[in-house]
Amino acid sequence: MHKTDKHEPLILNQFFPYRFAMLQQAISENIASVYTGEFELSRHEWRVMAILGEQTGLSAKQITFLTNLEKMQISRAINSMRSNNLIKETINAKDKRFTQLYLTDQGKKIYQILVPRVLKKEQELLTVLSDDEQKNLNQLLDKLQQKATLLLK
Protein backbone atom coordinates (compact mmCIF):
# COMPACT_ATOMS: atom_id res chain seq x y z
CA MET A 1 0.00 0.00 0.00
CA HIS A 2 1.22 3.45 -0.83
CA LYS A 3 1.02 6.13 1.72
CA THR A 4 -0.64 9.12 0.10
CA ASP A 5 0.54 12.58 0.85
CA LYS A 6 -1.98 14.71 2.61
CA HIS A 7 -2.69 17.93 0.85
CA GLU A 8 -5.19 20.70 1.03
CA PRO A 9 -8.28 20.03 -1.03
CA LEU A 10 -8.79 22.12 -4.14
CA ILE A 11 -11.63 24.55 -3.62
CA LEU A 12 -12.23 25.68 -7.17
CA ASN A 13 -13.91 29.00 -6.39
CA GLN A 14 -10.86 29.93 -4.30
CA PHE A 15 -8.29 28.69 -6.83
CA PHE A 16 -6.59 31.76 -8.33
CA PRO A 17 -6.36 30.58 -11.98
CA TYR A 18 -10.06 29.65 -11.96
CA ARG A 19 -11.10 32.94 -10.35
CA PHE A 20 -8.96 34.89 -12.80
CA ALA A 21 -10.45 33.01 -15.78
CA MET A 22 -13.97 33.68 -14.51
CA LEU A 23 -13.16 37.37 -14.03
CA GLN A 24 -11.62 37.56 -17.49
CA GLN A 25 -14.74 35.99 -19.00
CA ALA A 26 -17.08 38.40 -17.20
CA ILE A 27 -15.01 41.42 -18.21
CA SER A 28 -14.77 40.22 -21.83
CA GLU A 29 -18.53 39.75 -22.02
CA ASN A 30 -19.08 43.25 -20.61
CA ILE A 31 -16.73 44.83 -23.12
CA ALA A 32 -18.03 42.67 -25.98
CA SER A 33 -21.49 44.14 -25.51
CA VAL A 34 -20.05 47.34 -26.99
CA TYR A 35 -18.73 45.95 -30.29
CA THR A 36 -20.87 42.86 -30.94
CA GLY A 37 -24.25 44.56 -31.19
CA GLU A 38 -24.29 47.52 -33.55
CA PHE A 39 -21.11 46.59 -35.42
CA GLU A 40 -21.36 42.79 -35.25
CA LEU A 41 -17.65 42.31 -34.61
CA SER A 42 -16.37 39.13 -33.04
CA ARG A 43 -13.98 39.28 -30.11
CA HIS A 44 -11.10 38.38 -32.45
CA GLU A 45 -12.11 41.01 -35.01
CA TRP A 46 -12.26 43.61 -32.25
CA ARG A 47 -8.75 42.67 -31.13
CA VAL A 48 -7.43 43.00 -34.68
CA MET A 49 -9.18 46.35 -35.04
CA ALA A 50 -7.85 47.57 -31.68
CA ILE A 51 -4.28 46.59 -32.59
CA LEU A 52 -4.46 48.17 -36.07
CA GLY A 53 -6.05 51.29 -34.61
CA GLU A 54 -3.05 51.61 -32.33
CA GLN A 55 -0.27 50.34 -34.66
CA THR A 56 -0.96 50.50 -38.36
CA GLY A 57 0.73 48.50 -41.10
CA LEU A 58 1.28 45.27 -39.17
CA SER A 59 1.54 41.79 -40.63
CA ALA A 60 -0.83 39.00 -39.63
CA LYS A 61 2.07 37.36 -37.79
CA GLN A 62 2.69 40.53 -35.75
CA ILE A 63 -1.01 40.78 -34.91
CA THR A 64 -1.02 37.14 -33.83
CA PHE A 65 1.86 37.83 -31.45
CA LEU A 66 0.39 41.08 -30.08
CA THR A 67 -3.10 39.67 -29.49
CA ASN A 68 -1.93 36.34 -28.08
CA LEU A 69 -4.43 34.54 -30.29
CA GLU A 70 -3.96 31.51 -32.51
CA LYS A 71 -2.89 31.99 -36.12
CA MET A 72 -6.16 30.49 -37.41
CA GLN A 73 -8.28 32.84 -35.24
CA ILE A 74 -6.42 35.85 -36.61
CA SER A 75 -6.63 34.56 -40.18
CA ARG A 76 -10.41 34.14 -39.90
CA ALA A 77 -10.81 37.58 -38.32
CA ILE A 78 -8.70 39.20 -41.04
CA ASN A 79 -10.64 37.44 -43.82
CA SER A 80 -13.97 38.48 -42.33
CA MET A 81 -12.82 42.06 -41.81
CA ARG A 82 -11.44 42.23 -45.35
CA SER A 83 -14.75 41.01 -46.81
CA ASN A 84 -16.59 43.62 -44.69
CA ASN A 85 -14.27 46.39 -45.95
CA LEU A 86 -12.82 47.06 -42.49
CA ILE A 87 -9.18 46.32 -43.35
CA LYS A 88 -7.02 46.41 -46.45
CA GLU A 89 -3.70 44.79 -47.31
CA THR A 90 -0.69 46.18 -49.10
CA ILE A 91 2.46 44.37 -50.16
CA ASN A 92 5.48 45.25 -48.01
CA ALA A 93 7.73 47.47 -50.15
CA LYS A 94 10.93 46.00 -48.67
CA ASP A 95 9.88 42.36 -48.72
CA LYS A 96 7.26 41.38 -51.28
CA ARG A 97 6.52 38.12 -49.42
CA PHE A 98 4.76 40.00 -46.62
CA THR A 99 1.61 42.05 -46.53
CA GLN A 100 0.81 44.87 -44.18
CA LEU A 101 -2.68 45.43 -42.81
CA TYR A 102 -4.44 48.76 -42.36
CA LEU A 103 -7.88 49.82 -41.28
CA THR A 104 -9.94 51.15 -44.17
CA ASP A 105 -11.74 54.48 -43.81
CA GLN A 106 -14.80 52.52 -42.70
CA GLY A 107 -12.69 50.52 -40.23
CA LYS A 108 -11.17 53.73 -38.83
CA LYS A 109 -14.62 55.27 -38.44
CA ILE A 110 -15.91 52.26 -36.48
CA TYR A 111 -12.73 52.20 -34.39
CA GLN A 112 -13.14 55.88 -33.53
CA ILE A 113 -16.75 55.24 -32.48
CA LEU A 114 -15.88 52.15 -30.42
CA VAL A 115 -12.83 53.40 -28.52
CA PRO A 116 -14.69 55.92 -26.31
CA ARG A 117 -17.38 53.32 -25.68
CA VAL A 118 -15.01 50.56 -24.59
CA LEU A 119 -13.04 53.02 -22.46
CA LYS A 120 -16.28 54.12 -20.82
CA LYS A 121 -17.18 50.48 -20.15
CA GLU A 122 -13.71 49.92 -18.68
CA GLN A 123 -14.20 52.90 -16.36
CA GLU A 124 -17.63 51.59 -15.31
CA LEU A 125 -16.01 48.29 -14.34
CA LEU A 126 -13.18 50.02 -12.47
CA THR A 127 -15.39 52.36 -10.44
CA VAL A 128 -15.50 49.69 -7.75
CA LEU A 129 -11.79 50.39 -7.12
CA SER A 130 -10.21 53.54 -5.73
CA ASP A 131 -7.41 55.23 -7.71
CA ASP A 132 -4.84 53.64 -5.41
CA GLU A 133 -6.44 50.22 -5.81
CA GLN A 134 -6.39 50.62 -9.61
CA LYS A 135 -2.71 51.54 -9.49
CA ASN A 136 -1.99 48.55 -7.22
CA LEU A 137 -4.00 46.25 -9.48
CA ASN A 138 -1.96 47.31 -12.51
CA GLN A 139 1.27 46.69 -10.61
CA LEU A 140 0.06 43.28 -9.45
CA LEU A 141 -1.03 42.33 -12.96
CA ASP A 142 2.41 43.32 -14.29
CA LYS A 143 4.11 41.17 -11.64
CA LEU A 144 1.88 38.18 -12.35
CA GLN A 145 2.40 38.53 -16.11
CA GLN A 146 6.16 38.59 -15.66
CA LYS A 147 6.11 35.54 -13.36
CA ALA A 148 3.75 33.57 -15.61
CA THR A 149 5.95 34.34 -18.62
CA LEU A 150 9.07 33.26 -16.71
CA LEU A 151 7.45 29.98 -15.70
CA LEU A 152 6.73 29.19 -19.37
CA LYS A 153 10.45 29.10 -20.15
How would you characterize this protein structure?
This protein has 153 residues and is mainly alpha-helical. 63% of the residues lie in helices and 7% in strands. The protein is built from six helices and two strands. The chain has a two-stranded antiparallel sheet. A hairpin with a 7-residue loop joins β1 and β2 (99-103). α1 packs across α5 (105-126) and α3 (60-67) packs across α4 (71-83). The longest helix has 22 residues, at 105-126. The chain is globular. The model has no long low-confidence stretch (mean pLDDT 92).
List the helices and strands and how they pair.
Elements: H1 16-35, H2 43-54, H3 60-67, H4 71-83, E1 87-91, E2 99-103, H5 105-126, H6 131-152
Antiparallel strand pairs: 1-2
Low-confidence sequence ranges: none
In DSSP terms (H or I, runs of 4 or more residues), the helix count works out at 6
Question: Could you tell me the number of beta strands?
Answer: 2
Largest sheet, order of strands side by side? 1-2
Give the mean pLDDT. 92
Topology pattern, helix = H, strand = E:
HHHHEEHH
Which percent band covers the strand fraction?
5-15%
Rg:
20 Å
Distance between the termini: 37 Å
Globular, elongated, flat, extended or rod-shaped: what is the shape?
globular
| Proportion of residues in helical segments | 55-70%
User: Which structural class should the secondary elements be placed in?
Assistant: mainly alpha
In short:
The chain is mainly alpha-helical and 153 residues long. Helices cover 63% and strands 7% of the residues. The mean pLDDT is 92.
